[in-house]
Write the structure tokens for this entry.
Amino acid sequence: QVQLTESGGALVQAGGSLRLSCRASGLPFSNYNMAWFRQAPGKEREFLAFITWIGSRTTYAESVKGRFTISRDNNVNTLYLQMNSLKPEDTAMYHCAARASNTVSDDPRMYNYWGQGTQVTVSS
């Protein structure tokens, strides 16, 4: 059974930082390309960042480029998202997702597995 479990979400003040984690089990993690998405109430799921299976290539949405960093440690089956300079508009549920294809995609429908999410709230 595949499980992606996010953690690290919290309430933080604007300008602060958080590091999210996504622990994978039940799948060959190092064979999967991974991504982070977020979804705010009443809004569509938004692509944030993508990383290839070996971590050799990353892609970011313009809204987070320069502030967020995606990384992974295949030795512990974990994906990370370092978030700096947080803004109130970053408030959302953050989800990790796994994709078998090596092609970058910002379409949530192209991802095979999803975590339940971790809540990030940024106060002004």
User: Anything to note?
Assistant: The chain has a mean pLDDT of 96. The CA atoms of residues 78 and 118 lie 15 Å apart. The two ends are 40 Å apart (CA to CA). The first strand starts at residue 3 and ends at 7.
